[in-house]
Amino acid sequence: MPWDPIGFVDAWGGAMGTSGFTEHRTAVGVVGGLLGLVAVSVVAGLLVTAAVTPVVALSGLGAANTITVFENLPGYLDIEPLSQKSDIYATQNDGTPVLLASFYDQNRIEVGWDEISPYARDAVVASEDPRFYEHGGVDAQGTLRAAVTTAVGGVTQGGSSITQQYVKNVRVQKCELESDERLRRQCYNAVTATTPDRKIKEMRLAIGVEKKFPKNAILRQYLNITGFGGTVYGIEAAANYYYGTTAAALTLPQAASLVAILNNPAKFRLDNPGSATNGEAGGYAVNKARRDYILREMVRYEKITAAEYRAAVDSPIQPAIQEPSTGCQTAGGSAYFCDYVTYLLRNDPVFGEDDQTRLQNFRRGGYDVYTSLDLDLQLAAEATMAVNVPMEYPGWDVGSVITSVQVGTGRVLAMTQNKRYSQDPTVQATSASYTGVNYNTDYAEGGSSGFQPGSTYKVFTLAEWLKTGHRLDERVDSARKANWGTFNDSCRGPQNYDSQNWNPRNDAGESGGNYSALESTLGSINTGFIGMAKKLDLCGIRQTAEAFGVHRADGDPLMQTAAAVIGTNEVAPLTMAVAFAGIANRGVTCSPIAIDRIVAADGDEVPVPTSNCVASVNPTVAAGVVFAMRRVMTDGTAQQSWGATAPRVPLIGKTGTTDGGKDTWMVGASSKVATVAAVVSVTGEARQRSISFASGPAATARHRMWPAVMSVANAKYGGDELPELGPAPVIVPATDSGNPDDSTDNSTNNSTDDSDD
């Protein structure tokens, strides 16, 4: 609920105002009492002097020197919003939010007066401050009693009113907002020191609070701010954690046992069932003793009946600990998406001046973050990933990713990988199945330094080819050679690689010397695209890729060598999904977004990052690229993914395999959703065509995963016709059928037919 430092009004049940101090005294009575206090002060010393001052102030009598000292203390307490946990949600189809993870420094959920059980409110007053509704902020009787008892050698007593305790908690809260550890510790020591000076300041501030706020409001905020052990703060979080219920639904014995914790959280908390003194075997004896004392006080002050007391005392303490969601590791298969969202929040200036401040403010601000995650697609991605790619493989640092984005909006719909999420180095050291690195995203967003996309990158050369007036049926010199000659580069000047003996091969050994652009696209012919690049500008190819939002995952500029034409830049899978969504969106690329709404603790909407949609190429160029990429699905290297996707809608796609089968990709889109499925080598080398998983060859796992996700996407979102423009009839690429490596993705041996770099 919204936090309102001034909103202590009738809505909070604040029928009693600051006129709650109802004890009327005669002048003679007060003077007599003061004389008695002065006499006792000889014995009790400073603590009683501390108590005398507010009594004099409240009585309205003289004692000028003491009153002057007291009145010169600050009487205004600057109350900041409470630190509350923030939550990240996905949303079900019916609009129901599903919690992915929570983040907090203090696990607190602020609630209103009517959201707190009357049992809890009455238990606090009866046990902590029975005269709460009678005094003006300082309970003189309680303070005097505690001071005298302490001074004569009895058990040390606090004697603080609820308002004084609230003041202390507010001051501690201010200290905890200090980002510098040394200053935070100094502040904490000062506001918790057992000294008369601290006590006097708290009294003065308590009186100021009572002048400003109604009683019920003070009690409500006390129950919201106070600690219940560990990182659990406030009655709502305590009810959630210890009993799996809400503050409003607390029963009498539950409420009393929670209020018991306030007296000494370390001693009375209920989350250590193995404790010898306060554990399950002993019926949580220490807490029960304090609970039963509180119940007796509630009877004494007529908050409950004798019958209610007997029933509550007879009931056992049975906590039902509900561990709160803490960080993205609790989001299961959605943990890497959750991690991506946290990086977006760190980069959002709404939350502060730098990423550390932003994350800190988010953890304390009580925000509800509603994300773009589509749970249907996400669950399909998680399921197919679990079946098709293991978390570990002997001798290979295997990684795998699936990412989906919505065409036309940039909304990230799914994101998963073949690892368990953990940011704890100790946990990561236990198994290669754990990592905190998100393989889907850029390094600056918690990701890796990227992976070579192989032949999927060729679509940008194809787009540049059409953009500069070339046709799909135009042929180029595509013979394999080591002397390609000089390439045009308008940014860096002419480039020649002949001295490097650069001699890229084709995957199936194709040696044809005169492929068309369409043939090269369908068969993913490396030498065909290099021949196309000879007629283009390497800088122009790079700029076209950048127009589709493509960038290196490590933050460096894209390389624009001839080798880069066939996919040597390391990019994030999410980047490729966004680019293909741009092709399917008639050449308009929308930057990725993962947050739909943010609601602050006060209920206000917080501005969220928006997608930036730009025209990467004109619609005619996009239609030409679509023409070729649709036929990659039906007649080219992506036939296996096409054949396994149902229901059918118009689809575009491109496969990619890097040198030696180290990484294998399938990237494609409908008019609604774009998806990447890839199996990659996180470190080291692997020849995927020589490796088999339980589900089948490693090299074709992409073609088992991509259809599983896109089938769900097609069923849910459908798919419109994709405008296309190209030559007719379709020319099927020629292959050297005698080559033993020549095969297609839907052949019996399941090998790939897209080219290596």
UniProtKB/TrEMBL annotation:
Pfam families documented for this protein: Transgly, Transpeptidase
Annotated Low complexity bias: 735-757
Membrane-traversing stretches: 26-48
Entry keyword set: Carboxypeptidase, Glycosyltransferase, Hydrolase, Membrane, Multifunctional enzyme, Protease, Transferase, Transmembrane, Transmembrane helix
Record domain Penicillin-binding protein transpeptidase: where: 405-684
Top-rank taxon: Bacteria
Glycosyl transferase family domain ranges (all copies): 100-298
Family matches, as InterPro entries: Beta-lactam/transpept-like, Glyco_trans_51, Glycosyltr_51/Transpeptidase, Lysozyme-like_dom_sf, PBP_transglycosylase, PCN-bd_Tpept
Annotated spans, Disordered: 485-510, 720-757
UniProt KW Transmembrane keyword: yes
SUPFAM superfamilies, sorted: beta-lactamase/transpeptidase-like, Lysozyme-like
Catalytic activity field: [GlcNAc-(1->4)-Mur2Ac(oyl-L-Ala-gamma-D-Glu-L-Lys-D-Ala-D-Ala)](n)-di-trans,octa-cis-undecaprenyl diphosphate + beta-D-GlcNAc-(1->4)-Mur2Ac(oyl-L-Ala-gamma-D-Glu-L-Lys-D-Ala-D-Ala)-di-trans,octa-cis-undecaprenyl diphosphate = [GlcNAc-(1->4)-Mur2Ac(oyl-L-Ala-gamma-D-Glu-L-Lys-D-Ala-D-Ala)](n+1)-di-trans,octa-cis-undecaprenyl diphosphate + di-trans,octa-cis-undecaprenyl diphosphate + H(+); Preferential cleavage: (Ac)2-L-Lys-D-Ala-|-D-Ala. Also transpeptidation of peptidyl-alanyl moieties that are N-acyl substituents of D-alanine
PANTHER family per the UniProt record, alphabetical: BINDING PROTEIN TRANSPEPTIDASE, PUTATIVE-RELATED, PEPTIDOGLYCAN GLYCOSYLTRANSFERASE
This protein's name: Penicillin-binding protein
Organism the protein comes from: Cryobacterium sinapicolor
